[in-house]
Every structure is written in structure tokens, then in C-alpha cells.
Design a protein that fits this description.
By secondary structure, this protein is mostly helical. The chain has 20 helices and 7 strands.
Length: 423
């Protein structure tokens, strides 16, 4: 509890900087955590501004799944991929139903459905267009198959954008695909709360991070090509878990930070529970639940907020920050020296300080698309700035130390890094 109290104090100060209105509620949050035996619904001691302020507006936060946004199953040629949230958005026409969207359509869609902050949405949308698409749009599944549109899509971005250790999708080089639901993984995740009545269940961050640690160990044990890269592994892999709760948790007046019940998570993942207790469904069946409410207006999930989650998770499970992988056999995980990898800018001690963990991932993401960026004559941040100057400023304000020398050759020992994406 002593560690948790210290952490709450630290993150409250950081959130007050990232979200100025949080300063008003800082003392209230410490009192809240000291009086609630079970802590916040998130399961972690990271203040959610909406929870602190008690912010909930049913009219503004309601997300429609009827009319123009009624569920329509994907048809022939429609793209769906490894991200259930993006699949649900396409199934409900919050991005084009064919699963191929422009940068602005991704930004608008992720805000409209989930309340993703403009800085985070712009970064992810722009990077997707550069890495997976034609610089202006990209596919949430495989190659778009549309004349004039290029890129391999999210499915073809393994260990560049999409990564190993997905909650419900298989490791590509273990199973041969990275987008279909692997039912054994779904069963293990669902079992974390399945003994509870639906209204008492909550797949919160504590539950999800414990499951991530199990999946991490499973990948090391079963996937000879497991790779935990600086961007795809250290910076993006956590989102596959954190986003589930932060975005899919159903917000309410009672729980402004959200509760993710069995029924809600089944809906978003497209899962049907059969009469015999088994499960079916998955890819293409992802739905926005009935009576579902997104994050509060003004409580968007931003890069600074994500960094707090990222750092806290790595402090509990240090293996999440280990850059490296298996070397061609199972249980052969070998880490790289961060000091050597970053030319001395970072080391194992400083990696979890401030914004450093995210900064390392971001700078490796930028290095990974150097050729595309050179053709455009700018950096990734500058490209983001052409879409949203505010988003570029938010990233610049992180104060990431610049990596003058990135020793990517140190990663060549990992076959999961050197193999190209397969789709």
C-alpha cells in the first residue's frame, strides 16, 4: 500500500500537468482511494479525470448502434483484422464499412465511438497510413484490393505495428495468422471473471495486465519467433490490453471510468456463448453493445494518459519493457542492452522514468518508416503536424531525447524481427 500511495501522488501530479482541470481534484482523489476498499473500477491507482470529477452525460456519451449505425456483417471484399475495436467501428459504419479509411476518418471514428484523444488518434492514424497504407489511408485488415490504394494493411504489419502477445489473436509465426480469434486464448481471458454474475464482472486493467503477463510467458514458451520490439512490443502491445478497458468499459454515473462486464466484452469481440457453455463467433461479428456509453467529453484518452498506464504496467511486470525475443527456439528469450541499442541515451534505470518508455517506442517507429518519410521530406512528427498541429505539439512537448544513433543491427539476431509480415 505504501508503494501504491506514492504512485498515486506521482501520477496525480503528472495528470494535473497533462489535464489542468485535474489539479482541482487532486486532494479529492487521494481521499477517494483511501476510503474505497476496492479502489477505482479500473483496478489500478491511476486517477481517471472522469471518475474524480464524477463526470457523466448520458446524452453526449451515448453511442448509437441503430439506424445508420446498425450492425451490418462484412461482405465479400470488406476488410476486417486483428483489432476488435476497429472491426466494430466498420461493422457499424463509424468508419467505411469496407474497412479502408482515411487518416481523418480514423481520427473522427475513434473519437466518436470511444473518446480517443486527438493526439493519440492522429499518431496512430498517421502511422497506420505510413506503415500499412498509401500515406493517406489504410486497411484494418489485409491489402485493400482497391485500385490506387497500396499497403499491406494491419494484418501485414507484424512486428511493425501489430505484434505478438495479443489477448485473443494468435502469434503469427506460431499459428500462421494474426487476425482470427484463437478460442483457447479467449477462453482463458473470459475465465478471469466468468465465475461472477455478469453485473459483478469487470475485465479491468488489473485483470487484463495479469492476463497479459500470462500471454507473454506463453509466447516465450510456445513461439520460437516471439519478438518484443521497441515499438510493436514495448509501446503498442500494451494498447491491445489497456484499450480494452479504457475504451470498451461502459461508462455510467455510478462508474464514470467504466465497467467492462462479460456481456459487453463478448459483444465487442463478436463472441456468442452457446447453450453448452462453449463460445463461437469472432472476426466480423464485433458489435457495439446496446445501451453503451463512451468516455466523458473532456476526458479523452490521450498520449500522456497512456504513458501513465504504460509505465505503471511495466513497473508491476518489468518483463514488458524487455526489448528482445526468442532466437529461433522456444524459451530462448534474449534481451538487448538498451544503452547500446539507443547509443547511450537510455539505460535500464532511466527507461521507466518520465516519458522515456513511450519515447523509445516512438523514435523506433519513426526510424522504421524512414524511407517513406524521406519521400515526403519530413519527420513523423512533422507529418502528424500537417494533420493536427495540436497533436504534433503534444508529442513534441513530451521532450523525448533524440536518438542520434540507433543500433537496429542488434535486433537482427531475432528471426521474429527479420521475417517479413505474412498475410
Amino acid at each position: 500500500m505504501r508503494y501504491q500511495t506514492a504512485f498515486v501522488t506521482a501520477v496525480t501530479a503528472q495528470l494535473a500537468t497533462a489535464f489542468p482541470r485535474m489539479a482541482t481534484f487532486a486532494s479529492d482523489k487521494r481521499a477517494l482511494l483511501s476510503t474505497r476498499a476496492d479502489g477505482p473500477a479500473s483496478g489500478v491507482p491511476i486517477p481517471d479525470p472522469a471518475q474524480v470529477a464524477g463526470t457523466f452525460d448520458a446524452e453526449l456519451q451515448y453511442v448509437s448502434n441503430t439506424g445508420d449505425h446498425a450492425y451490418v456483417a462484412p461482405g465479400a471484399g470488406d476488410q476486417r483484422g486483428p483489432c476488435p475495436g476497429l472491426n466494430a467501428m466498420a461493422n457499424h459504419n463509424y468508419i467505411p464499412h469496407n474497412g479502408v479509411a482515411t487518416i481523418q476518418q480514423f481520427i473522427d471514428g475513434t473519437y466518436g465511438v470511444f473518446g480517443m484523444g486527438a493526439d493519440l488518434a492522429t499518431f496512430l492514424a498517421v502511422y497506420g497510413a505510413v506503415e500499412d497504407g498509401d500515406l493517406t489511408s489504410w486497411s484494418i485488415g489485409g491489402p485493400p484490393g482497391i485500385l490506387g490504394l497500396g499497403g499491406d494493411g494491419l494484418i501485414g504489419s507484424h512486428n511493425k505495428y501489430e505484434s505478438d502477445v495479443s489477448p485473443t489473436r494468435p502469434d503469427l509465426y506460431e499459428y500462421g495468422n494474426n487476425y482470427e480469434i484463437e478460442m483457447s486464448q479467449w477462453n482463458a481471458l473470459y475465465a478471469k471473471q466468468s465465475s461472477l454474475p455478469n453485473d459483478q464482472s469487470n475485465y479491468n486493467l488489473a485483470v487484463l495486465q495479469e492476463f497479459r503477463s500470462e500471454r507473454f510467458s506463453q509466447s516465450i514458451s510456445n513461439n520460437p519467433y516471439f519478438f518484443n520490439g521497441p515499438f510493436s512490443g514495448v509501446a503498442v502491445q500494451p494498447a491491445a490490453y489497456t484499450f480494452i478497458y479504457r475504451f470498451m468499459g461502459n461508462k455510467s454515473a455510478e462508474h464514470p471510468d467504466g465497467v467492462l462486464t462479460q456481456e459487453v466484452i463478448k459483444s465487442f469481440f463478436g463472441i456468442t456463448e452457446n447453450s453448452d457453455g462453449t463460445f463461437s463467433g469472432g472476426l466480423g461479428q464485433e458489435r457495439i453493445p446496446d445501451n453503451w456509453y463512451k468516455r466523458a467529453i473532456g476526458d479523452e484518452y490521450t498520449i500522456p494518459f497512456y504513458i501513465l498506464d504504460l509505465n505503471y504496467e511495466a513497473s508491476l511486470y518489468p518483463q514488458f519493457a524487455d526489448i528482445g525475443g526468442n532466437t529461433g527456439t522456444t524459451n530462448s528469450f534474449t534481451g538487448v542492452d538498451v544503452t547500446d541499442l539507443t547509443g547511450g541515451v537510455y539505460n535500464a534505470q532511466t527507461l521507466l522514468q518520465g516519458n522515456n518508455l513511450f519515447c523509445v517506442g516512438y523514435q523506433f517507429a519513426q526510424a522504421g518508416v524512414t524511407d517513406q518519410l524521406e519521400a515526403l521530406g519530413g519527420t513523423l512528427t512533422e507529418l502528424i503536424g500537417t494533420v493536427s498541429p495540436d497533436a504534433a505539439s503534444a508529442i513534441s512537448n513530451l521532450g523525448c531525447p533524440q536518438l542520434a544513433d540507433i543500433e537496429t543491427s542488434m535486433l537482427d539476431q531475432f528471426p521474429g524481427y527479420t521475417k517479413g509480415g505474412v498475410f
